[in-house]
Structure formats: structure tokens, C-alpha cells
């Protein structure tokens, strides 16, 4: 397989003004007829180039005609993935008849079956698995879709836009015609047919138009869509208020499907969701999942403007829609709940997973310069780092000018397929802020490090910060230039009071410093004593900040900083420091011991009733195994686990009375509501319980059992179960079986059970995961189940990182099997193996050997790209 490059971009030689599709759906095969109204693209220049259409090897061509003239075989060529027509007129109608087999489509790209329904997934290049087409986002066309099916089996037949006709064929099949007036690329096409239940609602837009809202699910799930429907209406209102964006069609539909490669898809007017990202009920859904449903409903809805009305010119520009839309959904969630809590969660995720990606073999710029398989680039870098870039633009411009920039962007490019440069240009033009150097964020991979040192001159009352930035080399990018880094800074006095200072003549408590050179000094005047700096407030740039804080400084920031985010950040730095000491002791074979200062900070927190319980819970959560691995080099997985367990137990023992009290104080029962205040209390309560149980205290052990039995919601029940499993509670196995018995008819709950079961620490971890894969609840064709079991297994130290390499071998075996069935899922499963270079030597060689074994197979482009780049 070979790479394609951004620098080779050319406008399409042909355009498709109108696309007319007919799907004749049968159980075994589907016949697709397309009528494409095509013409040569004037922007391409004069040309006699042949017409080259994209197709998949799973598409069988039945016939092709040009302006109703059936082409004889010598006038076209079919290769594995192209249909080439040598001679064409300047303007013509191309008719293609193709045959596909949706029920044999295990890749879940194109048209496939999930349960008893037909559904589609076309982004990025799935449409070519339906019929021959110019399957690229800069070819935008007006679609009319005719669905023909047996109404008794498929009473619901949906596609994009509005239903415009309904009738019967001579054989008595039902015919439904949908028309979408908005030109769109093929990746936004969708079709659904099935026996589905529907929930209806209405949203009145700001200009007083009524939009019909419909959520479809299989009948047994229709009682779980109320939350998503409310979230949808909140999103529609928010996009009007925050961005001035109104919905444009008369109907907006969402369909839940069980078999889906990712979370959801923003097809025009017809979003398709993984049921795990849409369905919610108190008994079956945790708080985290509720928030996820809300965020994803919002994200897909927001794509209607940032993605659909204005789309990407080519797939290198993916972050144009994804980075911006993630930023939009993050802001929405912050507005719906707590801004600081949301920011902490997002940053913790970014620093754990995106930073690891940016430091690994698959590191790539937010706007990649090349790829082998675009599916591999739906990454944390394109999404989350992309959102950080938009957030930095927001910081540099301020809210008002940012809004002016987004208004200009939508107005200027409505109906177009554009680039990240176009987005930045609109922001720059509307604000007058120079973003030319800033644009390097799009083209340079790697996480910059910002090293900060300081000095204080008592005679002049001047405090100086010296900042040095450096971006590490990444594959294909040995040297880097300085980027424009906005650094939000405040200063505290030794008692923790916020200080006013002057920077370049501006007096303020907080300054945004512009770090644009490799090394730069910033002076703060008007101070009487050396301050404690609160740096990178709100995580104002996606960088690794290094400043040598004393423990006293960190405790001060933890208790007094006015920036809630930095209070959390200080606690994390303190915890990381202590954990690193313990990790080193463990690696050196010493007895672990520490005089934890963190306990002091925790005690203050646990006794301060004025704090948001959600923030307290976040501070109490020790840095994750994954985050500590990202920081480590090399990674000693067992040492990290041992250190974390040790510190947690020590904190639990020192603060046992506090944890017990906080558990009881927040253990309120009542009707479940997924609102910020209740979520916060449950989160703190369950965090406190997890510590309290660490002490081995009998009352705590009993509290876990009681909570498991009596909980009226999944958050509390699953928290009790997880705590039991993770602390190796004597009754853990019984609770796991009881949980399965209780929920075996709820697949989404069973997935949680699979994940927790697969992550258990024990000598039999590998045997356990093998038996889970043989369990009736498991299905290798269902991505959610695969993710649960293999994702869970990846968290088990004794299983995945077993010293004999059996865990790595097992994962590699699964990747080899899935490579043929579902390349996208197989490729995602490779991620933990791509970290082999950073692993302790004995494990590293074993992991590498598994990658080499995979590479020797006949691989899909997806798996080939990840594995070969990891070994390079
Ligand atoms: N745009 C889709 C992702 C499609 C992934 C294709 N491999 C979901 C989203 O980001 O909204
Ligand atoms: Zn998206």
C-alpha cells in the first residue's frame, strides 16, 4: 500500500451536479442504480482526461450507460477499486447498476446489516462500497434517493432530506423517495431501513420555523431516548445563541444502531448513532455515559454547520470540521454543567492519550501531510488537539472577535468544501489579529515543551519569567519552528491572594503572554514580594509546562488559586511527584515508603464544604496508570501500578475518618437525575468509598455490598461493583455473577460487565478473557463488545503486561483475525502495541515481536499503516 500526499491535491476533473440513487433492498443482495448528472470541472482546465470513479472490491458492476447508451466492455475498464471510462462528453448522465451484499459486509462501511435493519456508514470512504462514484469531499451533489423494500419487514425507510414521494411497485414492494436540497459530498449520505419505533418531538427555531424531530430505535429501546431528545433540543437552542446557527431542513432524524465502528455520524438530516452513545435510562446508564450521550448528540448536531454546510476540501483537512466541532461541543457541555469540571476532564484526557499519540510512531500534524488509510487519522490529534487549536484562537481573539470570525467563516464558505487555512483566514480577517505564525500548529506534530524559570528583583519590584519552547522531533519532521503559544498567567502572594501586576503597561490580575520565540522574557512590575506564579491557567495551550514548584507552592495553588483548573493541576503535579518517587523505589526493588504531603492537601479539601464536590472528586482521583505511563520513559507497568496502589492505600489509611464521613454525607438517595449537582455528589461519594474500602475496614466492605444491592441507578451500582473488583473484595466474583444475571438482557450493561470482567487482576487474567470471548454475550462482529473485552484486557496488568508476553500475543492474535473482518477495528486495537519503544526492555522485545508477526500477514491498509509505521 502507498501513501497519498496533501501536496498532490488537485481539483476534481469532473463534477456531479445531481445524484439520483435507487436501492432495491432484498435479503441477500441489494441492487443500486445511480444516475449521475456530470460535467467536466471548468476549474480543472481543458482536459480530455478519462473519467475515473472510485469503487470497492465488494461492488459488482452490472452495467454502465452514458446518456442512455449502454457502454460495451471495450469502452470502460474495471479494476479492483476503480471504474475507468475512457471517453466522455463535457456534460452527460452516467447510469451505473451495481450489486452489493450488505449482510456479508463485516467492515461496517458502506451499506450493511445491523440486527434486522439496513444502515450505512460512508465517512470517510464508505460510499464507494455502495456504488462507483467520485468519492471525495470536494465533489458536492444534490441527492435524490429512492428506497424499494418489503414494507412488512422494513416499514421505516429513511434517507437524507425530506420524504417527497411514497408508492408501490408492481410486485407490491413499497417505494419511498427522499430529496435533500443541500449539495453534499457522498460521505454525508445515509440510508436506514428497518422495523423501528420512533419518538417524535418538535423544535421551534429562532425564526419560528417548526422542525420535526425523530429518534428511531429498535422497539425494545424506545423507552431510552428521552434524554437524547432533550439534549438535542438544548443543542439546537445553544447553537442559535452561541453561534447564530439555525437548523435548515424541516426534519431532523437520529437512528440508533447496535453495530457501529465509532460513536456516531453526522449524515445530513439523518444522524446515525452507536446505540451506546444515544440510549440512556437511570437504571442502565452511568452519569459518565449520560454526559457522553449529551456531548455526542450535540457534536453531531453541530456538524450540520461545521462540517455539512461548510465541509472539507480533502481529508487532510479533517480537523477543519472535527477540531472546530469538538471545541463547540466542549463549550456546550461546559455551559450545561460546570466549566472547570469539563475542562479538567478534557485536559486529563488530552494529556493522557493525545500526548502519548503525539510522542509515538503515529504522531502526525493536526493537518496531516500524508496518509495510507484515512480511517487511521480519526485521531485524538485531529479531534482533541484540533479543538485546542480552535480554543487558542478563541483566547487570542477574545469571545467577541472569535464570534465575528466564525460568522464570517460560515457566511463566506456556506456550501463550499474548504481548508484549515480558510478557517484561519476568516478568523484573521474578522479580527485583525495576525495568525500567520500561529498556523504552524496545524503543520507541526509533537507536543511543545515550555520550560519556565523566574527571578525577582526586590529593588525594582520586578518579577521576570523566562520561557523556552521546544518541540521534539517526530516521524518525518526532524526539526521544528517556534509556535505561537498563548500562556495565561496570574500571580499569588505567599498567603494565596491574587496580585495585580503590570505587563507592558497593562495592569491586571491575569495576563495572556504571547510566547512566539524559542526563548523569551516577560516582566511583571509593581510587586512588593516574590510571587508564586499560576502558569498556563485553564490549560491555555496544549504544551508540557515545566516549572520547578516547591511542595509549599503546590499546596498553596491547590488551596488558593482563583483558577479552578490550576488548583486541580497543582494537585496532579504534587501527586505525580510522589508517585514518581514510589515508582523509582519499586523499580529499584526497594520497600516503598513516602511521607505524603498530598494527604495534607486532601484533608483541607475534604473539610471544605464550599467546594464543588465534583472538583474535590477530580482532585482525589490519583493520576491514572495511563497518564503516568505517558510521563514515564521507559514505562515499568507493574511498578506504576504498585506505586499507585501503595499511595492510594496510604492516603486512605491516613484519612480514613474523612473518607468515611464524606461517603456518608454525600450518600443521598432519591430520584435519579443526570444534573450537575447530583452527578457531583455521586462522584465524590464513590471516590470516597473507593478510598475507604482500601483500608480493609469491615464497615466499608459492607457499604460496598449494600450500595450494590440497594442502588436505584447504574452509576452507584456499577461504582460499587468496580470498587469490589478493583480492590479484590472477597465477594467480587459473586457480585459480578449477580450483575450479569440482573442485566443479561440489556446489551449495553452487559458491555460494561464484559469490560470490568476483562480488566480484573489475577493470575488467570488471560484465561478469563478467553472465556469471555467464548461467552454467549460476546460477538466478534460487534465493535462495542470487542472494545469492551479487549479494551478491558488492556487495563489488566497481570493479563496484558504479563511478563511472559502471553497478553501481547493474545491481542496480536485477535488483531490478525479482525484484520480481515473489520480493518478499522483491527487497526484501533493496535494502539497499545504501538507504544513498544517506551516499554521496559524485557517487555519491549516481546511486544515488538508481536508487531513483526502481524506485519508478516496479508494486511488491510488500515493495519498495515499502523504496524509498519510503529516498526519503522
Ligand atoms: N464524523 C464521524 C466520524 C467518522 C469516522 C469514520 N471512520 C463522527 C464525528 O466525528 O462526528
Ligand atoms: Zn465529528
UniProtKB/TrEMBL annotation:
Domain Aminopeptidase N-like N-terminal, first and last residues per copy: 102-188
Cofactor dependence: Zn(2+)
Any one Gene Ontology molecular-function term assigned to this protein's record: metallopeptidase activity
Summary of the function given for this chain in its UniProt record: Aminopeptidase N is involved in the degradation of intracellular peptides generated by protein breakdown during normal growth as well as in response to nutrient starvation.
UniProt cross-references to InterPro entries, sorted A to Z: Aminopeptidase_N-like_N, Aminopeptidase_N-like_N_sf, PepN_Ig-like_sf, Peptidase_M1, Peptidase_M1_dom, Peptidase_M1_pepN, Peptidase_M1_pepN_C, Peptidase_M1_pepN_C_sf
Domain Peptidase M1 membrane alanine aminopeptidase as annotated: residue spans: 227-441
Domain of life: Bacteria
The protein's name: Aminopeptidase N
Domain Peptidase M1 alanyl aminopeptidase Ig-like fold: from-to ranges: 446-548
Enzyme Commission number(s) from the entry: 3.4.11.2
Family: Belongs to the peptidase M1 family.
GO BP terms, alphabetized: proteolysis
Domain Peptidase M1 alanyl aminopeptidase C-terminal residues, every copy: 552-872
Catalytic activity: Release of an N-terminal amino acid, Xaa-|-Yaa- from a peptide, amide or arylamide. Xaa is preferably Ala, but may be most amino acids including Pro (slow action). When a terminal hydrophobic residue is followed by a prolyl residue, the two may be released as an intact Xaa-Pro dipeptide
Keywords: Aminopeptidase, Hydrolase, Metal-binding, Metalloprotease, Protease, Zinc
Amino acid at each position: 500500500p502507498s501513501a497519498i500526499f496533501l501536496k498532490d491535491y488537485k481539483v476534481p476533473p469532473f463534477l456531479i451536479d445531481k445524484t439520483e440513487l435507487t436501492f432495491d433492498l432484498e435479503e441477500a443482495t441489494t441492487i443500486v442504480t445511480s444516475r449521475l448528472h456530470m460535467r467536466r470541472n471548468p476549474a480543472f482546465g481543458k482536459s480530455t482526461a478519462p473519467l475515473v470513479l472510485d469503487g470497492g472490491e465488494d461492488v459488482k458492476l452490472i452495467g454502465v450507460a452514458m446518456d442512455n447508451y449502454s457502454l460495451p466492455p471495450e469502452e470502460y475498464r474495471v479494476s479492483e477499486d476503480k471504474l475507468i471510462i475512457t471517453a466522455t462528453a463535457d456534460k452527460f448522465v452516467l447510469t451505473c447498476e451495481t450489486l452489493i451484499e450488505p449482510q456479508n459486509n463485516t467492515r461496517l462501511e458502506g451499506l450493511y446489516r445491523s440486527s434486522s435493519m439496513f444502515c450505512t456508514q460512508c465517512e470517510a470512504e464508505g460510499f464507494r462500497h455502495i456504488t462507483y462514484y467520485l468519492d471525495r469531499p470536494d465533489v458536492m451533489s444534490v441527492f435524490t434517493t429512492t428506497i424499494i423494500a418489503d414494507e412488512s419487514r422494513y416499514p421505516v425507510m429513511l434517507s437524507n432530506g425530506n420524504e417527497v414521494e411514497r408508492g408501490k411497485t408492481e410486485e407490491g414492494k413499497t417505494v419511498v423517495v427522499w430529496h435533500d436540497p443541500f449539495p453534499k459530498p457522498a460521505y454525508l449520505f445515509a440510508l436506514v431501513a428497518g422495523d423501528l419505533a420512533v419518538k417524535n418531538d418538535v423544535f421551534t427555531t429562532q425564526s419560528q420555523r417548526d422542525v420535526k424531530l425523530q429518534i428511531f430505535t429498535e422497539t425494545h429501546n424506545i423507552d431510552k431516548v428521552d434524554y437524547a431528545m432533550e439534549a438535542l433540543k438544548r443543542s439546537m437552542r445553544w447553537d442559535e445563541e452561541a453561534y447564530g446557527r439555525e437548523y435548515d431542513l424541516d426534519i431532523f432524524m437520529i437512528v440508533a444502531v447496535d453495530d457501529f465502528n465509532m460513536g456516531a455520524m453526522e449524515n445530513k438530516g439523518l444522524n446515525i448513532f452507536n446505540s451506546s452513545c444515544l440510549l440512556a435510562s437511570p437504571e442502565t446508564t452511568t452519569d459518565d455515559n449520560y454526559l457522553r450521550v449529551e456531548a455526542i448528540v450535540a457534536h453531531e448536531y453541530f456538524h450540520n454547520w461545521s462540517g455539512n454546510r461548510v465541509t472539507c476540501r480533502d481529508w487532510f483537512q479533517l480537523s477543519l470540521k472535527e477540531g472546530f466541532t469538538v471545541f463547540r461541543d466542549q463549550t456546550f457541555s461546559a455551559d450545561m454543567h460546570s466549566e472547570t469540571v469539563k475542562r479538567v476532564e478534557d485536559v486529563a484526557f488530552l494529556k493522557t492519550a493525545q500526548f502519548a499519540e503525539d510522542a509515538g510512531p503515529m504522531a502526525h500534524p493536526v493537518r496531516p501531510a500524508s496518509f495510507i488509510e484515512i480511517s487511521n487519522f480519526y485521531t485524538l490529534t485531529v479531534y482533541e488537539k484540533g479543538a485546542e487549536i480552535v480554543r487558542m484562537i478563541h483566547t487570542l481573539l477574545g469571545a467577541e472577535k472569535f464570534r465575528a470570525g466564525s460568522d464570517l467563516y460560515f457566511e463566506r464558505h456556506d456550501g463550499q468544501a474548504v481548508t484549515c487555512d480558510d478557517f484561519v483566514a476568516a478568523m484573521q480577517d474578522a479580527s485583525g489579529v495576525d495568525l500567520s505564525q500561529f498556523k504552524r500548529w496545524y503543520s507541526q506534530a509533537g507536543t511543545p515543551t515550555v520550560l519556565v524559570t523566574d527571578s525577582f528583583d526586590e529593588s525594582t519590584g520586578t518579577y521576570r519569567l523566562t520561557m523556552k519552547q521546544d518541540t521534539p522531533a517526530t516521524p518525518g519532521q526532524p526539526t521544528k519552528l517556534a509556535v505561537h503559544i498563548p500562556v495565561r498567567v496570574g500571580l499569588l502572594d505567599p498567603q494565596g491572594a491574587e496580585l495585580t501586576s503590570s505587563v507592558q503597561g497593562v495592569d491586571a490580575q491575569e495576563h495572556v503572554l504571547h510566547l512566539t520565540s524559542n526563548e523569551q522574557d516577560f516582566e511583571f512590575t509593581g510587586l512588593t514580594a516574590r510571587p508564586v506564579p499560576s502558569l498556563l491557567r485553564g490549560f491555555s495551550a496544549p504544551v508540557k509546562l515545566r516549572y520547578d514548584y516547591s511542595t509549599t507552592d503546590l499546596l498553596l495553588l491547590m488551596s488558593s488559586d482563583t483558577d479552578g483548573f490550576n488548583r486541580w493541576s497543582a494537585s496532579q503535579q504534587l501527586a505525580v511527584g510522589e508517585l514518581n518517587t514510589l515508582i523509582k523505589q519499586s523499580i529499584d526493588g526497594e520497600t516503598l515508603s513516602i511521607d505524603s504531603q498530598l494527604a495534607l492537601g486532601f484533608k483541607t479539601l475534604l473539610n471544605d464544604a464550599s467546594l464543588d464536590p465534583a472538583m474535590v472528586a477530580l482532585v482525589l482521583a490519583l493520576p491514572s496508570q495511563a497518564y503516568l505511563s505517558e510521563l514515564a520513559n521507559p514505562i515499568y507497568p507493574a511498578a506504576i501500578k504498585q506505586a499507585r496502589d501503595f499511595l492510594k492505600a496510604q492516603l486512605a489509611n491516613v484519612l480514613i475518618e474523612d473518607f468515611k464521613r464524606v461517603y456518608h454525607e454525600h450518600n443521598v438517595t432519591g430520584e435519579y437525575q443526570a444534573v450537575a449537582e447530583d452527578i457531583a455528589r455521586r462522584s465524590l461519594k464513590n471516590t470516597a468509598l473507593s478510598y475507604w474500602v482500601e483500608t480493609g475496614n469491615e464497615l466499608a466492605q459492607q457499604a460496598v455490598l449494600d450500595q450494590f444491592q440497594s442502588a436505584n441507578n447504574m452509576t452507584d451500582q456499577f461504582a460499587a461493583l468496580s470498587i469490589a473488583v478493583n480492590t479484590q473484595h472477597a465477594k467480587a466474583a459473586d457480585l459480578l455473577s449477580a450483575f450479569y444475571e440482573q442485566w443479561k438482557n440489556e446489551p449495553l450493561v452487559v458491555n460494561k460487565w464484559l469490560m470490568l470482567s476483562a480488566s480484573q487482576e489475577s493470575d488467570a487474567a488471560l484465561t478469563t478473557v478467553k472465556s469471555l470471548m467464548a461467552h454467549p454475550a460476546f460477538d466478534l462482529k460487534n465493535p462495542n463488545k470487542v472494545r469492551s473485552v479487549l479494551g478491558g484486557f488492556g487495563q489488566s496488568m497481570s493479563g496484558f503486561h504479563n511478563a511472559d508476553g502471553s497478553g501481547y500475543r493474545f491481542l496480536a492474535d485477535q488483531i490478525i483475525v479482525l484484520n480481515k473482518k473489520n480493518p478499522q477495528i483491527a487497526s484501533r486495537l493496535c494502539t497499545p502495541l504501538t507504544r513498544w519503544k517506551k516499554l521496559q526492555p524485557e517487555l519491549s522485545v516481546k511486544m515488538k515481536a508481536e508487531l513483526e508477526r502481524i506485519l508478516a500477514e496479508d494486511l488491510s491498509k488500515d493495519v498495515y499503516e499502523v504496524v509498519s509505521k510503529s516498526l519503522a
